[in-house]
Amino acid sequence: MDNILDTAKSWLTDFFDPAVKKEIQHLINTDTEELKDRFYKNMEFGTGGMRGIMGVGTNRINKYTLGKSTQGLSNYLNKVYSGEEIKVVIAFDCRHNSDTLARTVAEVFSANGIQVCLFSELRTTPELSFAVRHLNCHAGIVLTASHNPPEYNGYKVYWTDGGQIVPPQDGEIITEINSLSFEDIKFNANVDLIKVIDKEVDEAFIEASVANGNFGADGKDNFKIVFTSLHGTSITAIPEVLRRAGYKNVTVIGEQATPDGNFPTVQSPNPEEPEALSMAIKKAEETGADMVVGTDPDSDRLGIAVRNLEGKMEIVNGNQAMVLMTKFLLEKQKQKGFSGNEFIATTIVSTPMMEAMAKAYAVEFKTALTGFKWIGKMIKDFPDSQFIGGGEESFGYMVGDFVRDKDAVTSTLLACEIAAQAKANGSSFYKDLIDCYVEYGFYKEYLVSITKKGMSGAEEIKQMLKDFKDNPVASVGGSKVKWIEDYNTSIAKNVLTGEEKSIDIPKSNVLIYETEDGTRIAARPSGTEPKVKFYISTNTTLNKAENYDQVSTQLDAKIKSILSELNLD
User: Fold this and answer.
1) What predicted TM-score, i.e. pTM, was given to this entire model?
2) Which of 143, 359, 373, 459 has the most CB atoms within 10 Å of its CB?
């Protein structure tokens, strides 16, 4: 506790604002536990950049923690691009303080002699990724906490390719940041270096999104969409993208169309949570719409609901949406002709069905750690290969490579193209998905997410994962465990034969069990939230579409049994 108190007292110097000093002194005097949580560690970069609760302290998002990161990034840019005129682009979302924090970040860059293109108002994360290359910038920043609760904010860093920072840049930047004290931050802006941007970049991004996501689907005049931005940034792009692509029957949920960092109409602005789409689904049932789409605050994730076999709206999960989007893109590429250098990609905790589909189309399949920055890195690392599309189970997808991050704007258009064409063909989005299960195998996934907050929570998460590794299960769902993949040691071991294989993916705190029947259980801590996540994937054959309900029920029962076995129910 002494170290924590010393760290807190270091924020009582004249460098810090009077209001900050007053709040810290109050915490020192009255609230030891809150003081500990705010100062027991420094805010760190995770799989999605830097993200956390806003407030005063080293373990909070504020002008000083973001300023220090920006100062470190400025120092790094000035070293790597010495002698060049360095330029960065900055965007921000709807969250509280995002606009003022974005301005602070811009001022620190400018104080270090770096030119800044600052969006005038909130914009989507995919547009920021696009803007990095469109404006020939050296780096990009977006102020967002994605789908986290209202008290959060964050800071994602993008490199010259438009993708999030990856090794070695991330480690080198973090080293630079950690070498600084808060007093090293240059807050005195050079306003001549800050340029405000908006419509010219918007127009280029929207044109590119339509060009990449519009496949001239039939039946658009008879296809009804309900769209909700969940109080976030996608309202600035998706309605216009759909209009330009020819969709006329689009109902926008007005109660959720105004950007609002409180997210007043939802428990969580996360389209992974079924409740987030409840208002839109209700409207779809009233209007007879074919599809519901909702996006998270910075518009990199999308949730989709479509009509099931009984005609009721049903949410499809991220794995299901990814499979059907990838299938559609592969089919379109097949019609044009494969060149032999195409690949699709996903993450190690997403559905294995992606690999089965890649084999069927004879295209390369690549897997990465969780976090879209790793998929972006693949594109950079293999410049002679063509990225068709790819995604992850957590409701993110990327169409082509004009954006180097998950892109709910273009993915929304792609989902509508698939569904409109299916309807015109006498099928549906849902029926096409079942056809994929018949063709490639019926894979069904389930996620268990356990939240553990604060310093004690971090220790609990660490212990849960240690227990999962130290006490390996011998069988899951009646099938013997065959492979244990330990991404901390980069070794996959066949526990039945003793065979070992190296894992050619950066080290990470992930452990995966795979059984003889292909059931997979993965465990990892979240990189952006105080959570530990367990991913379950099961599969079987589906001989014909008519057996879908029966086989789906069987897989549900198997998942339920596995949850009970692992004490996760």
Assistant:
1) 0.95
2) 143
